[in-house]
Write a structure and sequence with these properties.
Distance between the termini of chain A: 36 Å
CATH architecture of the domain at 53-175 in chain B: Orthogonal Bundle
Number of domains of chain A: 1
Helix content of chain A: 25-40%
Shape of chain A: globular
Strand content of chain B: under 5%
Oligomer: heterodimer
Largest sheet of chain A: 9 strands, mixed
Strand order of the largest sheet of chain A: 6-1-2-3-4-5-7-9-8
Number of helices of chain B: 11
Shape of chain B: elongated
CATH class of the domain at 53-175 in chain B: Mainly Alpha
Largest sheet of chain B: none
Structural class of chain A: alpha+beta
Radius of gyration of chain B: 21 Å
Order of helices and strands of chain B: HEHHHHHHHHHH
Number of strands of chain A: 9
Radius of gyration of chain A: 17 Å
Structural class of chain B: mainly alpha
């Protein structure tokens, strides 16, 4: 259910050098428990009394079992220092997996349902983030999945407001405007041409 | 899966990336958020059972079934030719409300030699009904019978339906325009 894809680099902002991390495909109960133990308290420090009890994890284990072998999505995670540094859910089929890009309207693509980094890696939450590169690696995993699915690297997502510059300027995605059907978040697509250029980019 | 770029590429890009936010899509703050997101995308297996299937919803499954019989292919053999999983071919044939992945639609269209856009109009999610398509589907469905090989009449019916799909102005139904 959860398997390692390989070792990838993350840039340690305190050490000023790259550190090894592992990119995983799939999710297990330990990952979910790790998120609850290390992510959730940083988002909501007052929620100690609301932490999940054993019954929650029994339910989570059953839910995970029922959600195995999905046909239309893949979940990725990055682990370093024994913690999940980021997660991404990519959908391969359904209404959101058709391109709105003028280069190839209605062509199939993969849609990033969520891309989330650990709270200690977020500039918006803490002053000195731990790692840089989590979003870049996860996004390239989505591009790789798109290629594997024969979608030529096409990827779509709804960016959170603080991340728009990253998708527009650093990943060269096309900004197709605010989406009234999705909390007015801006919708971005990486077209076939942009995917090709991104992969061949060498700064 | 293999990454399409190597670690040298990643290092160079990450080095020049600014320290900033990268979040996209729904917010993930606790384990339940992840499980809820996974459950939401489990649609093909869960939602299909609660929706009644109409004749037009069964059209794609029937088209696949008849094409497979015409070419005398088992589900596994057909899946290999179309480059999708046998599980998905079975789901398309057996479950009229199953919505295949876009890649499957494109591979099927390539195999049957009709525009992918036409096949999209046969999906249960296609929002606007088109009477000419429904008429063709009804005629096609009425002519089929589950025999091992295609009879001459069934072959003609399949050919007629494929011909209709290949010239069908399919933008209307799937686009909802």
């Amino acid at each position: 259910m959860k398997q390692a894809i390989g070792t990838i680099p993350l840039f340690g902002l305190e050490s000023g050098k790259f550190h090894d991390a592992v990119l995983f495909q799939g999710v297990d109960l330990a990952t979910l428990q790790g998120i609850e133990a290390s992510w959730t308290p940083m988002f909501d420090t007052a929620a100690a009394e609301n932490r999940p009890e054993d019954a929650h994890w029994e339910w989570a284990a059953k839910a995970l079992q029922a959600l195995q072998n999905p046909l239309n999505y893949e979940i990725f995670g990055i682990e370093a220092d024994g913690k999940t540094q980021g997660m991404m859910l990519v959908v391969k089929g359904g209404a959101k997996c058709f391109s709105r890009h003028p280069e190839h309207p209605r062509m199939p693509l993969v849609y990033v349902d969520f891309l989330a980094t650990a709270p200690w890696n977020r500039r918006g939450l803490i002053e000195s983030p731990t790692y840089k590169g989590v979003g870049r690696v996860l996004f390239m995993s989505a591009v790789s999945l798109s290629i594997e699915e024969e979608f030529a690297g096409r990827v779509a997502l709804h960016s959170l407001p603080g991340a728009e510059a990253f998708y527009r300027d650093r990943l060269s995605m096309t900004d197709l405007g605010a989406d009234g059907d999705y909390q007015n978040l801006r919708y971005f697509e990486l077209s076939t041409t942009q995917a090709r250029q991104l992969i061949s980019a060498w700064p | 899966m293999k990454l399409c770029v190597d670690n040298d590429w990643l290092r160079r890009q990450i080095e020049s990336d600014p320290i900033g936010e990268v979040e996209a899509g729904r917010g993930i703050r606790r384990s339940a958020d992840v499980l809820n997101a996974l459950a939401e995308h489990q649609e093909p297996k869960d939602k299909k059972t609660v929706r009644p299937a109409s004749r037009s919803e069964a059209a794609l499954g029937l088209l696949v079934h008849m094409t497979r019989r015409r070419d005398r292919l088992s589900i596994v053999q057909f899946a290999e030719r179309v480059r999708v999983s046998a599980e998905e071919v079975t789901a398309i044939e057996k479950d009229p409300s199953y919505s295949p992945r876009p890649r499957t639609i494109h591979n099927l269209a390539e195999y049957v030699k009709v525009p992918a856009k036409s096949l999209l109009n046969l999906l249960p999610d296609a929002p606007v009904l088109d009477h000419s398509l429904d008429d063709a589907v009804h005629k096609f469905a009425a002519s089929s019978d589950d025999l091992s090989g295609l009879s001459r009449a069934e072959r003609r019916s399949l050919n007629d339906f494929v011909k209709f799909l290949s010239i069908y102005n399919g933008g209307t139904k799937a686009d909802g325009k």
